[in-house]
Amino acid sequence: MALRKNGEIVSQCVNNGFIHENQYFIDLYTFNNCERNKGYGTLISYYLIIDQLKKGYLPIWETTVDNMPSQKVADKLGFEKVEEYPVYSINIV
């Protein structure tokens, strides 16, 4: 799902393709910093969630502990924090 303003995609929300049983992960992007905090991400996420619920899929919202804007959108949409878990990465120098 994408939200356009003056022909340009402002915000996009997608089922990221990782589906386990009937649950899927949401990816949300608001591309231009000056378009953030206007409710676009919340709006487009809502429409994706409704669309996927109609298809029998339950959303999972995953974000980092320091991504407060993402956490705020998740809260507005009714998600509840259920766990924190470690994420591992490799730094290549």
TrEMBL record:
UniProt KW keywords: Transferase
Organism the protein comes from: Ruminiclostridium hungatei (Clostridium hungatei)
Domain of life, source organism: Bacteria
GO MF: transferase activity
Protein's UniProt name: GNAT acetyltransferase
InterPro entries (alphabetical): Acyl_CoA_acyltransferase, GNAT_acetyltra_YdfB-like
